[in-house]
Amino acid sequence: MNYTLSVLLAIAALGLIIAALVEVSKYFRGQTIISGRQLVLRLIMAGLLLAIIGLGFWAKIYLSGSPDPVVTLVVGLGIVVMIVVVIVLALLDLRQVRAVQRRVQAELYQRLADMSQEIDKLTKAKQNRDKTEQDLEIES
Length: 140
Known about the structure:
Elements: H1 2-29, H2 36-62, H3 69-139
Helix pairs in contact: 1-2, 2-3
């Protein structure tokens, strides 16, 4: 069981590193809507998650024999504090993403409204032109 858990944590750490690299790559290629601040926030979260995984490995190796209760308590509290910090940072990131989504949605609606007005103008202009052509045909 311990070996399986270690392998799963190593795979999770590798996946986290790959996800962070993909996020950085997307940011620098301009393929994402997040800001630089959000990128830094996400990289901090990835670092904290890697620290949690690393601390878990260290604790497994160091505390496997006869663990010192104080060290065990400090390690356990450290992991809990880092998890709480990651959760808070994730909520901040979610809030920022939602704000960006609302802004992009508002811009989209504004563009749609502008296009609708332009279509209305073109429709009225076409109707006026058609009416003028009909009036000219009647006079002829």
